[in-house]
């Protein structure tokens, strides 16, 4: 199989685009797609300070690398979840990448350790607050990412969510018609209210397979295993199901998610109250404990921390 | 495993309702659900004349049987597609059922043979008009069902589509955000304009498994095989995928489709122009050939027939 852009041997077929690329042409393709994403969704400009949330996996490390190569001012944040046999290894990958790739570009890494702040790792915390590990983790990561980006005056926070992640999330939300979540599923969420950092997903145009190939081609040393806590998570089932549909009809994920974005854009154009910033301003207020924006009186993070500190009988 | 309503042995588990039923209790459950469907979606009243579209499969024959047992005035229509080795066997099932079950209740069967009308069976016709067999078949069946129901002054036309059918169709429409199809996906479509029969799906609350068990318990002699033309059809992939999701989380199909109906109802209540009758009145006009309602100048059936009659060179 030959690359469709040059005479080299192809390393990846992209059935959804009916094409195939060699390593360098794949890299160029990914870079172009990320730039298109940044522009199409008004994510950030070259002057903005970006905080990339990195986990040690392929997507977030590749995202950091791409942004640095494209000349953006991108630092990173790693949240150490304290999962034994996993967090130490992912942290090592992130630290090595920082040393080898990011620091030479003048970028820096911030590490936030859950146990320092909450007195326990994510697993123990989930047990304490009697909630599933993945949702406990989600609440904590969302909170800390936002807080650290905001407090350190970053213009925008970027995560490595790819098309597979977004399509799976959309499928889950659509299967249950979660209107509220559907409204908030966008590759760019504005800094709508005081205390809320702008959030972007520059890899929303890339599939998981494409990002894995990109990471291999570009010798990004990432942690291959999924988080051991995620076993049996619904998102993995949704991804499986979408892979099945994609195999039957290449481009399914792409049409599903992009079609949704088009629909959302039209709805927002038709009604200014469906605009994300308006929605946030109408529903968010400062948490009575930590002052970060929340729809409740006390935010879910503070409620969780309060529960974790309540002695059990 | 015991029936949850009586001391008998259960024949079917219904994980989505966290229950299990013996044969008679399953039958009662199905009857109740069909009556709920008829009432909730304002399908028809005991005085209405109903035309059931029967194919020889479990759903449509069971539907006809249920409506007759519940005391409704239900005749049936069978469309002979002329698929050799299949249509003859399905027709035989329908004719036997008519003789054994329907005629003793005073109901009658009408048979429409595609070949009599179009000069060829569905397979040959699809080849002639250069379209996939399933879409050719869909166009012809929709047209003839509507025409025959309308010309014979039936108040309503009923089809045996079950929850699996509707959820699979919804998934297909959502994956591609087919707004127009999404608007028209409802268990009751009104007789909105002259020439358009009212259409209902009284089995939309029942899964395929539940209907298969119902048919076996009630000794309905139906054709088990799927249509040989449907092999590889996308609907089967969607059904497979939904079965996978249902196994992971019982009630998925149910929540997906009913959640959609709720959402649709709210949208229609908020805007009278989203009401089905208004949508139809705004977009339909009589076909310039056959006078049946269509969104185009000539309806898709007449265009197809014209193409079939054009000599090929």
Please describe what this structure looks like:
2 copies of one chain form a homodimer. Chain A is an alpha/beta fold and 313 residues long. Chain A contains 13 helices and 10 strands. Chain A has helices at residues 23-40, 58-69, 87-102, 114-118, 122-129, 133-151, 163-175, 179-183, 208-217, 234-248, 252-270, 276-283, 300-309; strands at residues 12-14, 19-21, 49-54, 73-80, 109-113, 156-158, 188-189, 198-200, 285-286, 293-294. In chain A, the strands form 3 sheets. In chain A, strands 5-4-3-6-8-7 form a 6-stranded mixed beta sheet, with helices on both faces. In chain A, helix 1 packs across helix 9 (208-217), helix 2 runs parallel beside helix 3 (87-102) and helix 2 crosses helix 9. Chain A is globular. The relative contact order of chain A is 0.14. The A-B interface holds A 174-177, 179, 234, 237, 240-241, 244-245, 248-249, 252, 255-256, 259-260, 262-263 and B 174-177, 179, 234, 237-238, 240-241, 244-245, 248-249, 252, 255-256, 259-260, 262-263.
Give the secondary structure arrangement, pairings included.
The structure is a homodimer of 313-residue chains.
Chain A: E1 12-14, E2 19-21, H1 23-40, E3 49-54, H2 58-69, E4 73-80, H3 87-102, E5 109-113, H4 114-118, H5 122-129, H6 133-151, E6 156-158, H7 163-175, H8 179-183, E7 188-189, E8 198-200, H9 208-217, H10 234-248, H11 252-270, H12 276-283, E9 285-286, E10 293-294, H13 300-309
Parallel strand pairs in A: 3-4, 3-6, 4-5, 6-8
Antiparallel strand pairs in A: 1-2, 7-8, 9-10
Helix pairs in contact in A: 1-9, 2-3, 2-9, 5-6, 7-10, 7-11
